[in-house]
Amino acid sequence: MRLLCAAFGAAFLMISATAQALEHHEGGGEATYEMLREGGFVMVMRHAHSPGDQKASVGLSDGCQLAPGRGLDATGFAQARTLGAMLADNEVPILKAYTSRMCRAWDTAALAAGGAVVEESPSQVSTDPAVVTAFKEAVAAELAANPGQNIILASHSNIAPLYGALVGDDEEELPEGLISIVDPVSWNGVDGFMLRIRSGVEVVSQSVAVE
User: Fold this and answer.
1) Going by C-beta distance under 8 Å and a sequence separation of 6 or more, which residues neighbour residue 191?
2) Is the predicted pLDDT of residue 118 greater than 70, yes or no?
3) Distance between CA atoms of 67 and 50, rounded to whole angstroms?
4) Residue 209 has what DSSP assignment?
5) Residue 155 and residue 58: Cα distance in Å, rounded?
6) Coil, strand, or helix at residue 182?
7) What does the buried/exposed string (b/e) look like for 191-201 if buried means 16 or more CB atoms within 10 Å of the residue's CB?
């Protein structure tokens, strides 16, 4: 995928330079987008790049809570915007996005959702099993009532895995700004695989086996 804007070139190159070698699901990226165009999936992600102790952290979404020194940085904003453009360019329908109240997650959701409704949800900061179960049921019901649509969940490294985002064996924690495509029936991946989409100079999808 070509760069969307020269102003974000440096940030995109940084993302590309750190990308690991990816294993492609059968059919590659286009097969993944074809599946998403049919709808019915949850796109679960940790917020985009947000290093700690920033001297000039910002939050752009009205109502979000900016943690001290912890908003998206230039790379994070470029990363989230690229994901949104990738989904829009491939005509992936997005019903809405749910996010935590933190600006780094809310800004990620707003950019990735590409104009779809973004709603703050307490579920996206809660590890309470009852809250997680109830929200899963609510999201599954919402998708069932809106066929042909997908929903984004943008949260944090300790929350996204509760909704099916899978941490790879070679990863210490869930990577920032990477979408995991989750089946809301099983909440553990699609057809035995956890498909993942990351932004960068090239559009790629990664598959991680789910046991």
Assistant:
1) none
2) yes
3) 11
4) E
5) 17
6) strand
7) eebbbbbbbbb
Helix axis angle for 74-89 and 9-18, nearest 10°, is 90
pLDDT at 203 over 70: no
Q: At what angle do helices 103-113 and 74-89 cross, to 10 degrees?
A: 30
Share of the chain above pLDDT 90, in %: 46
Check if the beta carbon of residue 153 is closer than 8 Å to that of residue 113. Answer: no
Instruction: Say if residues 104 and 49 touch (Cβ distance below 8 Å).
Output: no
Q: Count CB neighbours of 210 within 10 A.
A: 14
3-class secondary-structure state, position 181 = strand
C-alpha span between 56 and 165 (Å, rounded): 30
- The SS3 of residue 141 is helix
For residues 85 and 87, give the distance between their C-alpha atoms in angstroms, rounded to a whole number: 5
pTM: 0.80
Mean pLDDT of 140-160: 96
Count CA atoms closer than 13 A to 18's CA, side-chain side.
Answer: 13
pLDDT, tens digit, 9 for 90 and up, residues 165-188: 878 778 888 888 888 899 999 887
Question: What's the DSSP call for residue 112?
Answer: H
Q: Which residue has the higher pLDDT, 192 or 89?
A: 89
